[in-house]
Amino acid sequence: MSLLFIAWRNFRYRALSSFLTTLSLTLGVGLVVLVMSVYGIISEAFVRNASVGYNLVVGPKGSTLQLTLNAVYYLSQPIENLPYTEYMEFYPKEKRAEMVRTFGGDPALGERDGVYAGFMTDGYAIPLALGDYFGEFRVVGTTPDFFELLNHGPDADQPFTFEEGRNFEFHNEENSYFECVLGSRVAAQMGMRVGDVMNPTHGDPEGKGHGQGFQIVGVLDPTGTPNDRAAFVNLEGFYLLEGHAKPIPDDAVIVLPESAATAGPDEPLLLTIPEREVTSILVRNGNLMMAPMLQNRIKESVRAEAATPIGEINKLMTMIVGPLMQALLAITLITCVVAAVGVLVAIYNSMNDRKRDIAVMRALGARRGSVTWIILFESLIIALVGGIAGWVLAHLGILAASPLIEARTGVQVGFFSMSTYELYLLPLVIGLSLLAGIVPAASAYRTDVGTNLSA
């Protein structure tokens, strides 16, 4: 009869004690695995979603991390707004003059190239205007270029596609400037589809409604990015909502747009350039090697700040999320140590009841080393059963929560989704349990045969 088989019989003979000891280890291991998995999910969600089609986010002076969280993840409140003229600085004078003719403003704006135009050959700049909500979701005012020029995915090479409908247009006869596209999660949770009307509220989810609604013309396919939980509206319609026009200074030079002379009585007039603001600007310059130069040039301006999304998220993971998760991991590892101590106490407490059995084994020819290995094998069995059961329990929980995790973060997880740290967990648990088994094994080694046989 092998020593391992004898240890297994001892494990089964003390069924209740073995079960409770193994359960405590199972819960400890399961907690550690959950913490590791949560850290992996958070890391993947942030880092993957930082891989976007643009390389700079431009906003008002302030925290670059807050700017990134607001413009990329729609998580933070805007710092402030930038004047629309700051957005115009990314375009050559021909495009700037066209903007003046279309929207109205100071003709001098179209008489020079933008300050950053030299960096933008074959690049693009896409404005964002935030501040409204649709239920709990952010409303993002932008241009059709958002879905035509940007990509998503881990390598930022996947174009946006529509589960239903199409991209919104700058203007059309049917809906004027009031068209919108919903992210997949917004559409599902709010029960909206193409043909419905979306009515945003001002400032926060419980804010005052604007009265003016946007016709839903498209619903995005799931992207696994923050865009799934945003409602995108035509920037021109966003500007026309009540309270969104910036007061015009008394000394402002304004030429009305060319469309003002031909607009019908029911056609809304677009905001002029001095009345416009943007929350942030998504920028991809033509030559990516010149991105640091463009970033430094923007930082030299009085109003604007530029952030690199990937760099800011790496800072967040290194400075905040990483240390927090390490602290949680340390706490859960302490839980494993406590569970290992439980293994020690459970086996050691059973030694008084087993001294006579050990003495009989010794009298029948078992060596001290064999008895010692039987006790260590019992610790090993508890470690293996508890460790494997804890891993399975944690991953069953992850599998059960996978639909919610995917909806919230865009990260797809399954039963076998695991972090690299988990590969070291079972050897660690086995090592701790074997260490815990040394004390009761030493007690078995020192058992006196004559005394315990005569007891």
Automatic annotation (TrEMBL):
Q: Which InterPro entries match?
A: ABC-4/HrtB_transporter, ABC3_permease_C, MacB_PCD
Keyword Membrane assigned? yes
Keywords linked to the UniProt accession: Cell membrane, Membrane, Transmembrane, Transmembrane helix
Main location group: membrane
**Where does it live in the cell?**
Cell membrane
How does the protein associate with the membrane? Multi-pass membrane protein
Pull one GO CC term from this UniProt entry: plasma membrane
| Chain ranges of the MacB-like periplasmic core domain | 18-242
Q: So where does this one cross the membrane?
A: 20-42, 324-349, 370-394, 424-445
Residue ranges annotated for the ABC3 transporter permease C-terminal domain, each copy included:
331-446
Q: What is this protein called?
A: ABC-type antimicrobial peptide transport system, permease component
Q: Which species does this protein come from?
A: Rhodopirellula islandica
